[in-house]
Design a protein that fits this description.
The chain has 104 residues and is mainly beta. The protein has one domain. It has one helix at 93-100; strands at residues 10-13, 26-33, 38-42, 49-51, 58-67, 73-78, 83-85. A hairpin with a 5-residue loop joins strand 5 (58-67) and strand 6 (73-78).
């Protein structure tokens, strides 16, 4: 399923291949990286750019407490199917229904 994410969107991490402690964390999408591509984003902790070596397209995401498979803190590469959007147009159905309830 394609959510048509864009940089700056917020998402909830709902799956992971390696670091399952990231599941349930909110993150900000920074950059979409096809497999093998190098990011424009620079890791503030070491000044290095990241290369997507996951074998699939992935989003570079940042967030407090995120941990990458290589031990870095504050960012991770996440495949799209492991991200749930947190924008208004993707609000859960029960939230949309609550907003539509009439006032009494």
């Amino acid at each position: 399923m394609s959510h048509q994410f864009k940089p700056g969107d917020l998402a909830l991490i709902v799956g992971a291949f390696n670091v399952t402690s990231n599941i349930g964390q909110v993150c900000e999408l920074v950059e979409h990286l096809p497999n093998g591509f190098i990011s424009n984003w620079v890791d503030p902790s070491d000044g290095c750019r990241l290369q997507n070596t996951t074998g699939a397209p992935a989003w570079l995401v940042i967030g407090d407490g995120l941990a990458s498979w290589c031990g870095a803190i504050g960012w991770v590469l996440a495949v799209e199917r492991h991200l749930m959007p947190l924008r208004d147009d993707f609000a859960p159905e029960h939230q949309k229904a609550k907003e539509a309830e009439p006032c009494l």
